[in-house]
Structures are given as structure tokens and as C-alpha cells.
Amino acid sequence: MPDTKAINAVLEDAVASGQVPGVTAAAANADGVIVETAFGRRSLAGAAPMTNDTVFRIASMTKAVTGAAAMQMVEQGKLSLDQPAGEILPFLANPMVLDGTDANGEPKLRPAKGEITLRKLLTHTAGFVYDTWNGEMNRYAAKTGHPAARTGKLAALHAPLGFDPGERWEYGINIDIAGRMVEVASGQDLETYFHDHLFRPLGMTDTGFVIKTQWKDRMAQVHARDEKGGLTPIESPPPAEKPEFYAGGGGLFSTSHDYLTFLRALMRGGELNGARILKPETVALMGQNHMGALNVLPMKTFNPRMSNDCELFPGMDKKWGLTFLINTQDVPGARSAGSLAWAGINNTYYWLDPVKRVTGVLMTQVLPFADPIVLGLLDRFERAVYSGLRA
Fold first, then answer.
1. Which of 43, 60, 254, 339 is catalytic?
2. In angstroms, what CA-CA distances link 37 with 4, 11, 216, 284?
3. For the ranges 234-238, 263-267, 278-282, 283-287, which has the lowest average pLDDT?
4. Which residue of 48, 69, 319, 343 shows the fewest CB atoms closer than 10 Å?
5. Taking the CB of residue 23, how many other CB atoms lie within 10 A of it?
């Protein structure tokens, strides 16, 4: 039987020692939910405790949900993994690559070589990048005022590429664009589409792009960690009002309970409690390497307020599935080779192990991303989950 006392002790110790203000975590295996627990406070500025229904900004954990929606469109024949993406979004038909700056410091652009496809978007090999981890795009955005995807402005998607499609892996706005393809192909905005085809069938009542009235007293506050390890509550920008598109790369709010529900459906081949969201063969396809000989590369920060340098599982080749990071080797005492994972910038994390059939979620609200303290907590939590399963 899983040792929930040992799991809880890991989380409780992290709060008691001041490593995090508060944390929620949940895990499940093939038999059902192992643990759902919460410790600490939603904000160091208040007394409200963390609870299992605390609402978090899950940021890039949105990507897996968008991937599931895109694959529903593929199942229905409304999208195809390898069709030219410009057939759905015409602005993708003739992309331009940012190629440094000229002698006057102005951005230089050239036509891209190769074609953008949904497969390349879902694997971050299409060429789009984030200015947080790409110096040239960081300078381009500062020079031109190019809007970020979180603004909800369609102009944000009309960004130049950082490299030719298919040339390499680099994290970027690719899945925001894939989400826009879902909106166009389905005829629904992502808020409506996700609710109708994913959240309502699975009973995920506390997930969405739009802040619900009933969430306002349940939301966790983001904290900034300083160089000495201290934590200060900070204000987060609210979601864009009346967005022109919903950011499928990073706009959702959710709870650890709801997100575990989504992961459990994927772990069970696309079905949970009688609700099927994807075919088993589709879920299996999503978990395969779709970048070929390319590898996931380290992410060097150009915005240290938002992110540290990041490389998960250093020294190991990593691949990318259809929205997932894939570790290619077993992690002793923890996840199997071929497990799926990713995270959100406010240090929320998940993994799904299709071999041992174990999945887990850990949520905090701390900046910058790839916080070593939270990553250490994630590792201890994961090991406690697996240790209990082996006992």
C-alpha cells in the first residue's frame, strides 16, 4: 500500500522549513488516487491555508491540454499532423526567420526554409521561441514592442521564427499557435472548446482560462524568491479581458485535483469514469518521440526574474512527444524511461509514467522557474510515491 504518511512528511517538512509558502500535491496509479494533500498557506501575506481545491496559475501545464484538444481534431480529420499549418492559419504559409540585426541595430528577417506543421508545433521544432530563453527574440521584442501570447492579441502569434522549421528543438509559442489552430478548426474559442470536450466530460470543474467568482477566495499567490532564498508575495497580471485568442501554451488556472483527473484519463488510454476524450492509440502516439534524432536542449534564461537556467535530467538525452518531455532512461527510485512530463513557469510540475502506470502533480506558486528548491521537493515527493508503491 502507498505510504501516505511518508509522502505527507516530505511536503510538510518543505513548508515547515520555509522552502515554500504552501504546496498541494496529488498522485495516482492504475488502482486510483494514492494521495491528495495540501500544506502551508496560499500566501505569506495571509492566513488562508492551502487546500486541495486551491486554484493555481498552471501556465505551461496548459500545453498538454491543448495537445489533447489538437489530437481530438486529428481524430476527427479536422487537423493533420503533417499538413502545412498555413492551410489552417494563412500567416504561417510564408514565415520569416529572425537573423540577427543589421549595422544600425535593426532586426534582420529572411524567408524560412522548410514548412511549419502541427507535429513541429507540438514538439517545439517549428522555429517559434520564447523571449525568456532566446536572446535574439528578447532583443526583438524590446525593440519592436512585439506582444506576448499572454496578452491575448493575435499579433503575438505573428512572431518571426528563431530558426528554420525542423532544424532543432527550442521552447516557444508553438503550442499557443496549435491552440489557435484548434480554435479555427473547431469554430470554438479554447475556453469553450476545452469546457465542452475535455473539462465537462472529465468533471474538471475548477479549470479554465477565465477566473470564476468562486475561485477568488481559493487562489494561491505567486511569490518571488530572492538570492538568499527568501520569498516575497508578488502581484500577478490578470488574464486579458476579451482576448482575441486563448493562450493554449500557458493560460489555464487549475487545481492539483483537476489536473490529476486529466492525467489519469491519459494514463488510462484516454478514458476516465466512463468519459472518453481520446482513443487509446492516440494517447500512445502522443507519448512517442516525434522529434527523431533531435534532442531537447538546455534552456538558458534571458529573463532571470522569470526563469533560472533549466535542464531537467542533465546528462540524459531527452525527447519530445506531442506536448510532453520524455526522459529516455529510468530514474532510479522514480519514473521509468519513456515517462511524460512538463511544468508551469510558477513551479508547477507533473509526470506520467506509462510503464509503471503512476502519475503525479506538485503545485507551488514561486518565481523564477526551475527553482532548485522546488525541483528538490518534486524529486523527494516522486520518490516517496514510488517507494510506497514498492513496499
1. 60
2. 9, 9, 20, 29
3. 234-238
4. 48
5. 30
**Cis peptide bond prior to 368, omega within 30° of 0:** yes
- pLDDT value of position 391: 57
The C-alpha cell of 323 is what? Answer: 506536448
Question: For 191-214, what is the mean pLDDT?
Answer: 97
Does 171 participate in catalysis according to the annotation? yes
The tally of CA atoms less than 13 A away on the side-chain side of residue 198 is: 28
| 236 in catalytic set | no
User: Domain 4-60+206-390 belongs to what topology?
Assistant: Beta-lactamase (3.40.710)
Rounded distance between C-alpha atoms, residue 228 and residue 251, angstroms: 30
273-289 per-residue burial string, b: 16 or more CB within 10 A, e: under 16: eeeebbeeebbebbbeb
Catalytically annotated residue among 140, 171, 259, 349: 171
Residue 60 is a catalytic residue: yes
Residue among 350, 343, 67, 55 nearest 205 (CA): 55
